[in-house]
């Protein structure tokens, strides 16, 4: 599976959420609002989700999209993290003196 990742927004703060991306798979499907998250334990991507209330009124979240296999998740995660790192390096380089 081929992934094309576009970093839509970089978040520069001390919180775990670092970027929002869109991921296009095999030039056929696009998933928006994929999150790049960095914690002390490592980096990963978070899937877009919808919030709803269950029968008891408790707020719940459900992924709108998620990879079915662990292999697909690892491939998507690798593509998302690589795009974020590349974008971060380019962003820093643009502020360096020539």
Mean pLDDT: 89
Largest sheet: 4 strands, antiparallel
Round the Cα radius of gyration to an integer and report it. 15 Å
Please estimate the helix content. 10-25%
CA(first)-CA(last) distance: 39 Å
Characterise the protein shown here.
- With 98 residues, this protein is α+β, with helices and mostly antiparallel strands.
- It has one helix spanning 70-93, and strands spanning 3-10, 17-25, 29-39, 42-46, 49-53, 59-63.
- A 4-stranded antiparallel beta sheet has the order 1-2-3-4, covered by helices on one side. A two-stranded antiparallel sheet has the order 5-6.
- Strand 3 and strand 4 (42-46) form a beta hairpin.
- The model is unreliable at 93-98 (pLDDT under 50).
Can you describe this structure in just a few lines?
The chain has 98 residues and is α+β, with helices and mostly antiparallel strands.
Topology readout:
Elements: E1 3-10, E2 17-25, E3 29-39, E4 42-46, E5 49-53, E6 59-63, H1 70-93
Antiparallel strand pairs: 1-2, 2-3, 3-4, 5-6
Descriptive keywords:
single chain; 98 residues; alpha+beta; 1 helix; 6 strands; 24% helix; disordered C terminus
